[in-house]
Specification:
With 267 residues, the chain is α/β, with parallel strands linked by helices. Helices cover 50% and strands 8% of the residues. The chain has two domains: 179 residues, HAD superfamily/HAD-like (Rossmann fold, 3-Layer(aba) Sandwich); 72 residues, DNA polymerase, domain 1, CATH 1.10.150.
C-alpha cells in the first residue's frame, strides 16, 4: 500500500497565505448587526462551513454578550440565516479578489505528486460560489485539483468526514490509509481524523499564525518562532499525525508515511 490521494484545504493551505479572505466579511457582517468583532475572534472557528462559522461566532460568550446588549435578546437561528444570506455571502464574494493567490512552491509540490501518480483532491469551508471564484484564480496560476468539494455537496461539513469520502470516491482512492488530508485549521484536522486518514496540519501559511508571508518575515525571529510553535501545538493537540510549515514540505513527509504503511502502520 502507498499514498494514492492527497486532499488539500484551500485558504491558508494552498492559497491565501495567512487565510485572510473570510476575516473582514465576518467582522463587517457582525458590525451590520451592531456587534463589534475582533480579528482574533473572527478567526477562532476558522475551517468550518461559513454558516457554521457564523453560528460559532455568535455562540462565543463575549460576542453573545455584545449581541444581547445590542438587541435585548440572545441570537437565534433566524439571525444566523438572515446574516449569512443577506450580509455575509455578498461581502465574502466581494472580498475574494486575490484569495486564490497560491502559497509559495505549491506548484512544485503538485508536480511532485503528479509525477508519482498521486491524485489531488480538495475540501473547504467556502460555499460553492466562493469556492468556484477562488478555484478559477488558482487555475489561472496553474493549480487545479482533480476534485473539489464544498459543504453543499455533503450532508454535513467539517468536522464530519464526508467531503474527504467524496474526494476518495471521485478519484477512486481507497482505503483511508492510502489518503492524506492536509489543512491549516482544527476543523481540517478533525475532518481528517474522523475520516480515518493520515492528517497533516499546516502551520506557517495558515490561520493559526494568520499573517501574510511578508508580514511574518518582518517579525523578529523569536516572535516568528513563538507564533509557529503555538500553531504547531494547536494542530498537534487537535490530533494531527504530522505538522509541516507549508505544503512545500509535503514531498519530504510522504515517503515517511509510505514507510509507516510498509511497516503495517495505519492512521
Amino acid at each position: 500500500m502507498r499514498i494514492r490521494l492527497v486532499v488539500f484545504d484551500w485558504a491558508g493551505t494552498t492559497v491565501d497565505h495567512g487565510c485572510f479572505a473570510p476575516i473582514r466579511p465576518f467582522v463587517e457582517t457582525l458590525a451590520s448587526a451592531g456587534v463589534a468583532l475582533t480579528t482574533d475572534e473572527a478567526r477562532a472557528p476558522m475551517g468550518l462551513h461559513k454558516r457554521d462559522h457564523l453560528r460559532a461566532l455568535l455562540a462565543l460568550p463575549a460576542v453573545r454578550e455584545r449581541w444581547c446588549a445590542a438587541h435585548g435578546r440572545a441570537p437565534s437561528e433566524d439571525d444566523v440565516d438572515h446574516l449569512f444570506a443577506n450580509e455575509f455571502v455578498p461581502r465574502q464574494l466581494r472580498a475574494l479578489d486575490g484569495a486564490g493567490r497560491l502559497v509559495p512552491r505549491l506548484l512544485d509540490t503538485v508536480a511532485w505528486l503528479r509525477a508519482r501518480e498521486i491524485r489531488i483532491g480538495s475540501s473547504t469551508g467556502y460555499f460553492r460560489e466562493a469556492l468556484e471564484a477562488v478555484a478559477a484564480e488558482a487555475r489561472a496560476q496553474g493549480y487545479a485539483p482533480d476534485a473539489a468539494f464544498c459543504p453543499s455537496d455533503v450532508a454535513a461539513a467539517r468536522p464530519a468526514p464526508w467531503m474527504i469520502f467524496r474526494n476518495m470516491e471521485a478519484t477512486g482512492a481507497f482505503p483511508p490509509a492510502a489518503v492524506v488530508k492536509v489543512g491549516d485549521t482544527v476543523p481540517d484536522v478533525e475532518e481528517g481524523r474522523n475520516a480515518g486518514v493520515w492528517t497533516v496540519g499546516v502551520a506557517r501559511t495558515g490561520s493559526e499564525v494568520g499573517l501574510t508571508a511578508e508580514d511574518l518575515a518582518t517579525l523578529p525571529a523569536p516572535e516568528q518562532d513563538r507564533r509557529l510553535a503555538r500553531a504547531r501545538e494547536t494542530l498537534r493537540a487537535a490530533g494531527a499525525h504530522d505538522v509541516i510549515d507549508s505544503v512545500a514540505d509535503l514531498p519530504a513527509l510522504l515517503p515517511e508515511i509510505d514507510a509507516r504503511l510498509a511497516r503495517g502502520g495505519h492512521p
